[in-house]
Amino acid sequence: MRNDLKSILANAAKMKKEPKKGQKPHEPLKGKVLGMVFEKPSLRTRISFEIAMAQLGGKSIYISPEEVGIGKRESAHDVGKVLSRYVNAIVYRAFSNKVMRELAEHATVPVINGLDDIEHPCQCVGDLLTIQEKKAKLAGLKLAYIGDGNNVCNSLMLSAAIVGMNMRAATPKDYRPNLDILAKAQEIAKATGCTTEVMSNPFQAVEGADVVYTDTWVSMGQEAEREQREKIFLPYQVNEKLCEKANKDYIFMHCLPAHRGFEVSAEVIDGSHSVVFDQAENRVHAQKAILVAVLS
C-alpha cells in the first residue's frame, strides 16, 4: 500500500514535467475509455479527470445523474456490469460509500472513487503531491486539519499515515471523523513511525504545523443544516490568529470550493501562505498517475 502510493506520487511528479518542449506527447492510454458516473456536481474532479485522460491519449464519457439514477432507475449491480462491457475504467462520484462499494464489487473493470460520503482519496493524492513539492518531503511533517471530520479528513488521515506524516484533526465533538478509519489510520501510523490524533482544540492542533488544512462546513446534501453548522463551527475558522500557532513557513490548503469568512478568512486563503490553486492544478497530475496505475 505504501509503495503503491509512493509510486503514484513519483509518477505524478514525473508526468507533471512532461512532455518537454519539442517532445512528442506520451500517450500510454491511447484507445482507452473512461466512464465518469457523477451523482454530485463537480469542477475539479470532473475536469481534472477529463484533461488527464485526454493528455494520456484516451477518451472520457461523462454520465450525469439523470442518465443513470443508480438505486432508482437502475441498480448499482447492473450499472457496474453494463459499464464494464463499454469502458476500461469507471470514476464514480457518489453520495454513498455503500453504493460505491456495491458498484465496484460487480464491475469487472477498475472503479476509482471520485468522492463519496466517507472518503475522497483522489483529492488526497493531489494534496500529497502539493505538500511534497512545497516542503520537499512528506515523512515527519505536521499536518493540522481544522473543521468538519468529513470525507476529506478521513482520507487525509489514511494518506498522511501511509507516508509517515503526523496529523492532528480538530473538530467539534459531534463532527469527528469516522472511527473505523481513525483506528485504521492510527494502526498504519504506528507502523510508519508517525501519529494520528483527533481533538477539539484547533489552537492545539495547529501548534507547530507545517500544513494547515480546512474544508467547507456544509457539504453537498447538508444544506438543511447550514445555520446550525455555521454556529457550531465558528470557533474552527482558519484565520490569521489561529495560524500564528503554526510554523512561520506553513502552507495553507483547502480542497475547494471555499467560503471566505466562514471556514477560512480571506486574509489566509488569499495570503502568501496559501497554495490552494497549486493544489487544484495538481489534481490533473494526480489523476494522470492514478489512471496510468490502474489502466497500464
What key attributes describe this structure?
Rossmann fold; 2 domains; five-stranded parallel sheet; four-stranded parallel sheet; 13 helices; 9 strands; 46% helix; globular
Structure commentary:
The mean pLDDT is 96. The chain is of the alpha/beta class and 296 residues long. The two termini are 18 Å apart. It contains 13 helices and nine strands. 46% of the residues are buried. It has helices spanning 2-16, 44-55, 65-68, 76-86, 97-106, 121-135, 151-163, 179-192, 202-206, 226-233, 240-243, 266-269, 276-295; strands at residues 33-38, 59-63, 89-93, 111-113, 142-146, 166-170, 196-199, 211-214, 251-254. The chain has two domains: 2-119 and 281-295, Aspartate/ornithine carbamoyltransferase (Rossmann fold), CATH 3.40.50.1370; 121-279, Rossmann fold (3-Layer(aba) Sandwich). The strands form two sheets. The protein has a five-stranded parallel sheet with strand order 7-6-5-8-9. Helix 6 (121-135) crosses helix 7 (151-163). Strand 1 (33-38), helix 2 and strand 2 (59-63) form a beta-alpha-beta unit.
What would a concise description of this structure say?
The chain is of the alpha/beta class and 296 residues long. Helices cover 46% and strands 14% of the residues. Helix 1 crosses helix 13 and helix 4 (76-86) crosses helix 5.
In what order do the strands lie side by side in the largest sheet? 7-6-5-8-9
The CATH architecture classification of the largest domain is: 3-Layer(aba) Sandwich
| Order of helix and strand elements from N to C terminus | HEHEHHEHEHEHEHEHEHHEHH
Computed structural class: alpha/beta
CATH superfamily of the largest domain: Aspartate/ornithine carbamoyltransferase
